[in-house]
Amino acid sequence: MIEIIDLNRYYDIGKKRFYALKNINLTIDKGEFILLNGVSGSGKTTLLTLIAGMDKPNSGIVKIDNEPIVKLPDQHLSKFRNQHIGIIFQHYNLLENLSVYDNVATPLIPMKLSLKEIDKRVKDSLKIANISHKASSVASKLSGGEKQRTAIARALVTKAPIILCDEPTANLDKANRDIFLDILNKLYKLKKTIIVSTHDPIFNNLEYITQKINLIDGQIIK
Ligand SMILES: Nc1ncnc2c1ncn2[C@@H]1O[C@H](COP(=O)(O)OP(=O)(O)OP(=O)(O)O)[C@@H](O)[C@H]1O
Ligand SMILES: [Mg+2]
Q1: CA distance 103 to 88
Q2: What separation in Å is there between the alpha carbon of 46 and the centre of ligand 1?
Q3: Best mutation site among 13, 40, 45 for ligand 1, i.e. most ligand atoms within 8 A of its Cβ?
Q4: pLDDT at 90
Q5: Maximum CA pair distance of the chain?
Q6: pLDDT recorded at residue 210
Q7: What is the CB < 6 Å shell around ligand 1?
Q8: From ligand 1's centre to the CA of 153, what distance in Å?
Q9: N or C: which end of the chain has fewer CB within 10 A?
Q10: Closest Cα to atom 30, ligand 1: which residue?
Q11: How many angstroms separate the CA atoms of 78 and 175, rounded?
Q12: What's the CA-to-centroid distance between 57 and ligand 2, angstroms?
């Protein structure tokens, strides 16, 4: 499902080359639940961004469903991403003036679905993410946990098989972290392929983790 081969992402700063990611090799099968651990600055966000095709590597390959995404032209890439990958960013990236419902419906606009199909998908996603009761609320007036659940619903609405979460519990209190874990468990049961970057110990003992990846200074340490 996801294949990463000899991936490098570096930045040249003056005469020095700084590797945010170095020689990353990784294979992730459909339905896996991957925990991506590493301290601040170890390369977690960089790796998720490259998997999502939102940044380009200096060398190496990212294949999603056998498609080397680096080679896709930009307009195909955004369509491909929409169909394959749902992303839950740390800061949620909601459209603050729109309702929860409209935020969740937004990724469906390019898909040219009927209004009936859009309504069904949005409602189903809101339900899985436990946020149906706030459907008509404006995003700017939500709590942190509610914003996150809206972002989860938005990541689900396209039915993308891959879900990427970047430090999903960093801004949540204990009650909202527990709700988030329940939702993740649901997504795992729906056979989504899930990658969670975190340094929150709450994830360490989840029984459904299939691979734990430790990043240190941009390298995978087994
Ligand atoms: N545009 C850039 N120019 C130079 N260095 C960069 C750039 N983007 C990222 N980096 C560096 O790459 C390294 C990895 O960054 P990344 O954001 O992937 O870390 P992270 O593991 O997600 O950290 P955090 O837990 O703080 O979110 C960091 O040292 C960062 O400073
Ligand atoms: Mg990060």
Answers
A1: 13
A2: 6
A3: 45
A4: 81
A5: 57
A6: 94
A7: 11, 20, 38, 40-46
A8: 27
A9: C
A10: 41
A11: 35
A12: 17
CA distance 200 to 173: 12
On the 0-12 / 13-18 / 19+ scale of CB atoms within 10 A, 42 is buried
Q: Name the closest-CA residue to atom 14, ligand 1.
A: 43
Task: For residue 187, give the DSSP letter.
Answer: H
Q: Output the CA 167–ligand 2 centroid distance in Å.
A: 7
pLDDT along the chain (222 residues), means of 10: 97 95 97 94 96 94 94 88 90 93 95 94 95 97 93 94 93 88 92 94 89 96 84
User: Which pTM does this prediction carry?
Assistant: 0.93
Q: Are 147 and 103 in contact (CB under 8 A)?
A: no
pLDDT in tens, 86-117: 999 888 889 999 999 999 999 999 888 999 99
Which residue do the tokens 């879900």 mark? 163
CA distances from 188 to 149, 163, 168 (A): 16, 10, 16
End-to-end alpha-carbon separation of the chain, Å?
21
Atom of ligand 1 nearest to the CA of 18: 5
The radius of gyration of the chain from alpha carbons, rounded to an integer in Å, stands at 17
The Cα–Cα gap between 80 and 86 comes to 11
Choose the residue to mutate in 13, 16, 17, 18 for probing ligand 1, maximizing ligand atoms within 8 Å of C-beta: 18
Which domains does the chain carry? 31-58+73-221 (3.40.50.300)
Distance of CA 47 from the midpoint of ligand 1 (Å): 10
Tokens of 158: 């396209």
